[in-house]
Specification:
With 600 residues, the chain is an alpha/beta fold. It folds into 4 domains: 201 residues, P-loop containing nucleotide triphosphate hydrolases (Rossmann fold), CATH 3.40.50.300; 54 residues; 217 residues, P-loop containing nucleotide triphosphate hydrolases (Rossmann fold, 3-Layer(aba) Sandwich), CATH 3.40.50; 73 residues, Valyl-tRNA synthetase, C-terminal domain (Helix Hairpins). The chain has 18 helices and 20 strands.
Length: 600
């Protein structure tokens, strides 16, 4: 196997006196599918920019093989100086690249190429940026939050496109399903350094939890050792003063080590504390909509839609951008009058909304004044008043950020501000429009826990498939031409119902003919086929373990430099194991399908 295309070794970087990366490594091989994960602020985007050559680290080495091409898509692409989306997409091409591919990709994303970037939505700008980096088909593709502002059809199309690419791909995303479907290797940025898992994101969280539990156990052992040393100093033989001095020094060293471990654990385990500020219960019926319709000009947005939403329902609204999700939501909560039909709100409704665009945030107002709505140091919650600094800490803000203007906060931090504001208001009907944008995975987990514990009613719009599956009990899906249907369950359930409800094309009528004679004797699997069906699962499991072992060994970023012969040997073994695994899986699948066919 060829050597790595890109290697980062012992990357160190400090921002404003605070160490961000303290020894990060990253290796990208040909056709790699790697995801970078970590908390907001852990340095994921920074490490990706270093890999792209856009930031120079304080220390460490970046090596890229000669002739390797790299394309990088930032979270907030810069369209300055480009009059049209096609101009922007074409600028990503190198000599010899297919000049027609940017136009084709833009059309796939629903753009003509003639659009002025200044007039486009966030989702449309994201599609143009993807067309620019996908068009050259580079050796390495670096994508920072590529699914932000994309609708479900666009996300699923992007997944399919990335699977077909010959490029190595490094991903940062908060979309769990996207990472699970595409990643084969996971790089966790934790407290300034990197840890590598030779498996996709679906195995990451259990692996991370095991590491944190192990660290907690080591910290407990260190605590017990400190207790023993203190006991010896107090009650040991006082005549051995020199020994005492030595052991006193050891105790101080242990205490210093324990303080460092405690600080590291605090950094690793800090989490957002979220709880809904619930008011009293609403009436049993929260919203009743009967035959509501809405059109913008000649375009039918909602056509004769009816629904009853009861107390404690969790409703998700899904559909492509432009289908009218926000319009439907606004009609349901009474912010927009339908052209026809009626919407009836229940009794005792306390409504709180979290809007998508963050437009309600004044960029010049400080974080403290935004949360307190000016002039106070406290926030009134259901369980009493809280000091604003303590409430900020619940959402992972530091005390020194109290005076920071909103404009200086990152996208993820602004998202947490919006959540903090929404959750501080008493409510029994919570309306969330794209709440997952820019949130890290840990914050998403805690938001999901809060929504699960919330006793009121929830209506939300989201393009995050995993988030929908974890939070909603029913889905309202756009069927096109203003038609909306309600499906029980989450996104995956709606997808199954939707696919099964599609009418199947009628089969052409065949002329009546005599039935074919069936071969005599009972058909069944041969002894060899039966034996293979029984033994293949064990063989597949063993090969999967071998692949993981080889990947973990190759994850050492310095292995190729130290022992290129061993690296090549491991790489060859990995390739053989992956090929054999694929063959065994295909053989097992064919035999299993044959067994089911004969059984039926």
């Amino acid at each position: 196997m060829a050597p790595p295309l890109l290697t980062l070794q012992n990357i160190q970087l400090t921002f404003g006196g605070t160490p961000l990366l303290t020894g990060a490594d990253l290796t990208v091989g040909a056709r790699e599918r790697l995801c970078l994960v970590g908390r907001n602020g852990s340095g994921k985007s920074t490490l990706l920019k270093i890999a792209a050559g856009l930031i120079e680290p304080d220390k460490g080495e970046r090596f890229i093989q000669p002739g390797v091409t790299v394309r990088y898509m930032a979270q907030e692409p810069d369209f300055t100086g480009f009059d049209t989306t096609l101009d922007y997409a074409m600028a990503g091409l190198a000599p010899g690249d297919d000049e027609y591919r940017p136009k084709i990709l833009l059309e796939h994303f629903g753009l003509t190429g003639d659009e002025n970037p200044e007039n486009l939505s966030g989702g449309e700008l994201r599609r143009a940026a993807l067309a620019r980096v996908l068009a050259p088909e580079p050796d390495i593709l670096l994508l920072d939050e590529p699914t932000n502002h994309l609708d479900l059809p666009a996300i699923e199309w992007l997944e399919a496109e990335i699977r077909l690419l010959r490029s190595a791909v490094v991903l940062i995303s908060h979309d769990r399903r996207f990472l699970e479907n595409l990643s084969k290797t996971t790089c966790w940025i934790d407290r300034g350094s990197t840890r590598l898992l030779g498996a996709g994101f679906d195995k990451f969280e259990s692996w991370r939890d095991e590491i944190l539990e192990r660290e907690q156990l080591e910290a407990h052992k260190l605590d017990r050792k400190i207790v023993r040393e203190e006991h010896w100093l107090r009650y040991g033989v006082t005549a051995r003063r020199k020994r005492n001095v030595k052991r006193l020094g050891q105790l101080h060293s242990l205490r210093d080590k324990r303080q460092e471990v405690s600080r590291e654990q605090t950094r690793a385990q800090a989490k957002v504390e979220m709880s809904g500020n619930e008011s009293g219960p609403s009436g049993k019926l929260v919203i009743k909509a009967v035959d509501i319709s809405k059109s913008w000009g000649d375009t039918r947005i909602v056509d004769n839609f009816s629904i009853n939403i009861a107390r404690s329902d969790r409703i998700g609204i899904i559909g492509a951008n432009g289908t009218g999700k926000t319009t439907l939501l606004k009609m349901l909560i009474g912010e927009l009058e339908p052209d026809s039909g009626t919407v009836e709100m229940g009794t005792n409704i306390d409504l709180v909304t979290l809007e998508q665009g963050r437009s309600s945030l004044d960029p010049d107002v400080t974080l403290k004044d935004t949360l307190t709505r000016g002039g106070s140091d406290t926030i009134q919650l259901a369980d009493g008043a809280r000091h604003v600094i303590g409430y900020m800490k619940d959402f992972l803000f530091q005390p020194e950020q109290a005076g920071t203007p909103i404009r200086e906060l990152s996208g993820g931090e602004r998202g947490r501000v919006m959540l903090a504001m929404a959750l501080s208001q008493p409510s029994n009907l919570l309306v969330l429009d794209e709440p997952t944008n820019d949130l890290d995975l840990e914050t998403l987990d805690l938001l999901q826990e809060m929504l699960a514990a919330y006793l009121g009613t929830i209506i939300l719009i989201s393009h995050d498939r995993d988030f929908l599956d974890r939070t909603v009990t029913a889905v309202i899906q756009s069927e096109g031409d203003g038609k909306w249907l309600e499906y029980a369950g989450g996104y995956s359930d709606a997808l199954k119902h939707h696919q099964s409800a599609k009418p199947k094309p009628a089969e052409p009528k065949k002329k009546k003919s005599r039935p074919e004679a069936k071969p005599a004797g009972k058909q069944k699997l041969s002894f060899k086929q039966t034996h293979a069906l029984e033994t293949l699962p064990g063989k597949i499991s063993a090969l999967e373990e071998a692949v993981t072992t080889f990947k973990n060994a190759l994850s050492d970023s310095q292995l190729y430099m130290k022992d290129p012969e061993r690296y090549n040997r491991l790489a060859d073994n990995l390739k053989k194991a992956e090929t054999e695994l694929e063959q065994c899986e295909e053989q097992w699948l064919e035999l299993e399908m044959l067994r089911e066919e004969l059984g039926s």
